[in-house]
Design brief:
Layout lengths: L8 H5 L12 H6 L8 H16 L3 H25 L8 H8 L40 H5 L14 H6 L5 H4 L3 H10 L2 E4 L17 H9 L7 H11 L4 E4 L6 H19 L8 E4 L3 H15 L7 E4 L5 H10 L3 E4 L1 H9 L12 E5 L1 H4 L3 H15 L14 E6 L18 E5 L9 E7 L5 H9 L9 E5 L2 H14 L5 E4 L5 H10 L7 E5 H4 L10 E4 L6 H8 L9 E7 L7 H9 L11 H10 L6 E2 L1 H5 L5 E8 L5 E9 L1
Parallel strand pairs: 2-7, 2-8, 3-5, 3-6, 4-5, 6-7, 9-14, 10-12, 10-13, 11-12, 13-14
Antiparallel strand pairs: 1-8, 15-16, 16-17
Helix pairs in contact: 3-4, 11-12, 12-13, 13-20, 15-17
The chain binds adenosine-5'-triphosphate (ATP).
Length: 648
């Protein structure tokens, strides 16, 4: 029989109190004081050491371990007691009572609680080690689970992982690796890396605080999208992640939810210190602002979950003020974040940067200057002066996201990535399949006229729409021209010089019925901006890079909704035709309207006859295509067949 170690449950958790509570106590617990964390880790570690020594029947080791636990418990208990508010202090009698409680064996799958049994406030299931006098109870699994028990999903020991202690839901964990792979295949999920956690099939399978669960529902998130199915479990298991998923596929929630869960656990543990624990870095102010709103929505009603927006768009003093007040999550652009970290006053607690998310990561490093800025920033966020560094191995968790080239950037971030889980949804670097694409060959001087025709035909081209142009002046003039030439259509323009507050107001409102067309410069809103009402994207100026085309088109077709993209092309964008045709070829014919004859002619000149294999898809969209099939290897070294268009 396994020997039982008698220690107070609260001490094992590094917390106060010893009673058990059910679901009805949860609201009260949420408001009560939090215990200081320094006591948490060493105590629980020692408790586990003692427990393991006892389990292994090594009596000498067990005696030493138990003694060490006992010898420090009183001092730490006093410290905890002093630090805690009077309402939550407990008497020695409580401790005595708690000492009588045996530590139970760690249970891999916790069963549902029966009526009147203790319920874990985190997972809502039966909880053996619940302490109901703190507001931030952790499931017994997190207290009892040592890395030796759960090595599979947590190869890098991270402090915050202990607080969250993610375990896959039994309904998915029971499947063998090849069965899980079949599920992934069905959802077009490709995951690479060691020990990939099983998919998350339902948000209800997560051990979330009630408030967060209801915020999720209120925000309209009912079932995870494919990228969320794989990224959320990996991120909750404290794994580094590199994820590529099409535009509009839900990458934001895929990283926000784990960030909030971790930050909530930490802000509870470090109550009063007010450090940022999570840094989400994105290339533009507008994108950061959008993430901050989404996070605020999800954090509503969660205590001590403040956010800060740190971008060059706003003056520094209010940003310092905000940081001084204490925030858990920071959303920012690289330049301003770097500056803020550079001048971080010694009087303020250093940020911990347990989780760093880089969204639109390919854009963050698309030039040498930006790449070196990102390296500098990561150096500051994870550098040796950061607390806990060295003590806990690799305390930071890095997650990289983009719809394009995310996997390729992982080489740049190699020094900071530890055994990442790589996730790809659908084909890499591909336009979203939810948008139908139409191309018109339009010479530059005829573009405006063509645009007015489109906007005056709401049956075929339903509004609201975003029109992308290259220049600021172009955006202003075009918005004015639309107002004149398209009666009843209300148009606005946004570009880099539009005041931040005005841009945010437009973004916040989405595209309301009073504004049906927004003319935007591509550099500003091509990436990440989420306006779910947008049905139509018009690329008035074809972007210079195919990646940017993919992102621009992706402003329509959000969250699986059908969208439409119309692109004006002419000889000026010739350099893109080859890659564009290559990409279109792999899409179903229903997603690409018949191509203009000029584009088809280009394909003919470019590719002489080399093969006689006809491509039915391409034929349907108007290219009389023969394809050459050659062997190639993909990024992972696997053999693939690559087809190229060779004749029209
Ligand atoms: N699980 C979900 N259920 C319902 N809607 C969702 C879910 N996840 C995300 N969405 C919605 O889908 C839309 C697109 O999500 P999101 O902005 O995260 O996409 P993205 O992958 O980041 O796109 P982009 O690459 O363009 O930045 C948003 O309006 C979001 O609210």
């Amino acid at each position: 029989m396994t020997p039982t170690l008698l220690v107070p449950r609260a001490v094992l958790l590094g917390k106060r109190g010893g009673g058990r509570g059910g679901a009805s106590d949860r609201g009260d617990r949420e408001k009560r004081a939090r215990s200081p964390v320094p006591a948490l880790l060493p105590v629980s570690k020692r408790a586990r050491t003692a427990s393991r020594a006892l389990s292994s029947n090594d009596t000498a080791a067990a005696a030493t371990a138990t003694e060490s636990l006992d010898s420090t418990t009183d001092t730490e208990r006093e410290a905890i007691n002093d630090a805690a508010p009077p309402s939550s202090r407990h008497s020695e009698d409580d401790d005595d009572a708690a000492f009588d409680e045996p530590v139970k064996e760690f249970a891999y799958y916790q069963r549902p609680a029966l009526p009147d049994e203790p319920v874990c406030v985190v997972c809502g299931r039966y909880g053996e080690y619940i302490s109901d006098t703190t507001e931030h109870d952790v499931c017994s699994r997190s207290a009892a689970a040592a890395p030796s028990i759960m090595p599979i999903y947590r190869p890098v020991e991270r402090f915050h992982a202990h607080l969250v202690a993610y375990q896959p839901h039994p309904s998915m964990a029971k499947y063998a690796a090849d069965e899980l792979e079949a599920f992934r295949l069905a959802k077009h999920i490709k995951a690479r890396g060691r020990h990939i956690p099983p998919l998350l099939a339902d948000f209800d399978h997560l051990t979330l605080p009630d408030q967060l669960r209801s915020n999720l529902r209120d925000a309209g998130y009912h079932a995870p999208t494919p990228v969320q199915m794989q990224v959320i479990p990996a991120a909750l298991a404290a794994r580094d992640v590199v994820a590529a998923a099409p535009t509009g596929s839900g990458k934001t929630l895929a990283f926000l939810l784990p960030c909030i869960v971790h930050a909530y656990a930490l802000s509870g543990a470090f109550h009063g210190e007010g450090r940022p624990y999570v840094f989400v870095v994105a290339p533009t102010h507008d994108l950061c602002a959008q993430f901050e709103w989404a996070a605020q929505k999800l954090c509503r009603g969660l205590p001590d979950m403040r956010t800060a927006l740190i971008t060059g768009e706003r003056p520094i003093p209010p940003q310092w003020h905000r940081l001084h007040r204490g925030v858990s999550l920071v959303f920012g652009t690289p330049g301003r974040l770097d500056r803020i970290l550079e001048t971080w006053p010694s009087t303020m607690a250093r940020p911990r940067a347990d989780i760093i998310v880089l969204d639109e990561v390919d854009r963050l490093v698309d030039s040498e200057v930006k790449e070196s800025l990102m390296r500098q920033l990561l150096g500051k966020l994870t550098g040796p002066e950061m607390p806990m560094r060295g003590e806990m191995g690799h305390p930071h968790q890095l997650m990289l996201f983009s719809a394009t080239r995310a996997w390729r950037t992982r080489r740049i971030f190699k020094p900071w990535l530890h055994d990442p889980v790589r996730v790809a949804i659908g084909d890499l670097d591909m336009v979203t399949p939810d948008v139908r694409q139409t191309f018109f060959w339009v010479e530059s001087n005829a573009k405006k006229r063509r645009l007015f025709l489109l906007l005056n035909d709401p049956i075929r081209y339903p509004l609201p729409a975003i029109v992308f142009v290259e220049s600021r002046v172009g955006a202003e003039l075009l918005a004015k021209a639309i107002a004149k030439r398209c009666p009843g259509v209300r148009a606005r323009h946004v570009h880099g010089e539009t005041p931040g507050a005005e841009r945010e107001a437009i973004l916040h409102a989405g595209l309301t019925s009073s504004t049906e067309v927004i003319v935007a410069t591509s550099g500003l809103w091509a990436r990440g901006i989420d306006m779910p009402r947008v049905r139509l994207v018009i690329n008035f100026d074809m972007p210079r890079h195919l990646d940017e085309y993919i992102h621009q088109v992706g402003r329509a077709g959000r969250a699986g909704e059908a969208g439409r993209a119309v692109t004006f092309i002419n000889d000026e964008s010739k350099s893109l035709f080859r890659d564009l045709l290559e990409m279109l070829r792999s899409l179903p014919s229903s997603k690409v309207d018949s191509l203009p004859v000029e584009l088809r002619r280009y394909a003919a000149q470019r590719h002489p006859i080399e093969s006689v294999l006809a491509n039915p898809h391409a034929r349907q969209i108007g290219i009389q295509v023969y394809t050459a099939i050659d062997r190639a290897t993909d990024e992972e070294g696997a053999q693939i067949h690559r087809q190229s268009i060779i004749h029209t």
